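User: My collaborator sent over this chain with a note saying "see what the structure looks like." That's all I know about it. Can you take a look?
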Amino acid sequence: MQLLFLAVALFLLCTLIAGMWRVLRGPTAADRMLAAQLFGTTAVAILLLLAETYDNPALRDVALVFALLAAVTAVAFVRRAWPEQVDDRSD
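Assistant: Without extra context I'll predict from the sequence alone. Here is the result:
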């Protein structure tokens, strides 16, 4: 079972190549942000697989921190890339 987990982790690392291509060549900022989210999600998945493979609960904690950081990063990007429009109309 450990070999399967390590093989899946290696496959997930290979998917990051596609994500890097999208970060470098993405036509819009949204495409680049989604690719960056792919990095965060993949890192969490790889850490969870390694935690299960090596029976190391500390890796689960690191995966949780990465998941929280990925969510905060997405919110920060959206707030910076698409600022709210201030409406000066008084209705």
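A starting point for your reply to your collaborator: The chain has three helices and no strands.
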